[in-house]
Amino acid sequence: MVTIPRCEDFNNDAAYLHPRAMSQPFPNGDGLDDAARSQVELSDTMAYNSSRNPRIDETIRPGPYKELLPCEDLCYNIVQSCPSSLGFSCPVPGQVGFSSSYGRRQGDALTCNYPGSAHVISSALRLAAPWMAALAVAVFGPLLV
Fold first, then answer.
1. Pairwise pLDDT comparison (142 vs 97), residue with the higher score
2. Cα 44 → chain centroid
3. pLDDT of res. 8
């Protein structure tokens, strides 16, 4: 379902991020030490040692990274929207597979990924605002006198 995950640096300690590709080397050839691997329960399972999409590991080989998981309601919306003959289903919270596949929204905090979520606000907006204000004064200022 998720072809391109939303990734974060492996050193990011946010609790809602899910480690991926922990057994793979970083692009520079270094790997995670035992201390880093031991901080994650079940770090020897497929959910932690591979990417969500196998083509990422085959083609890109990014090394260890963390993923902002898609929101659970995204899965439920797909199940409700698609024909039942496609056989989509979602893991149930508390069952095996849920916590490594989906995140949960927590108020206004961005703790999972969903279409339209903006996690990094573009700096272009901050740069454009002063120029737009100056342009507005230049164009409309003489009209206000």
1. 97
2. 21
3. 92
Asked if 107 contacts 71 with a C-beta cutoff of 8 angstroms, the reply is: no
* For range 32-54, the mean pLDDT: 80
Letter string b/e over residues 119-128, b meaning 16 or more CB atoms within 10 A of that residue's CB: eeeeeeeeee
Query: What pTM, to 2 d.p., does this model score?
Result: 0.71
pLDDT at 29 > cutoff 90: yes
Tell me phi and psi for residue 45, to 5 degrees. Answer: -95, 165
> What is the DSSP annotation of 39-93?
TSTTTTSHHHHS-SSHHIIIII---SEEEEPBBHHHHHHHHHHS-GGG----PPT
Q: What is the CA radius of gyration of the chain?
A: 21
For 140, how many CA atoms within 13 A lie in the half-sphere containing its CB? Answer: 6
In DSSP terms, 66 is beta-bridged to: 8, 19
Hey, what are 18's tokens? 């899910």
Q: What confidence score (pLDDT) does residue 2 get? A: 63
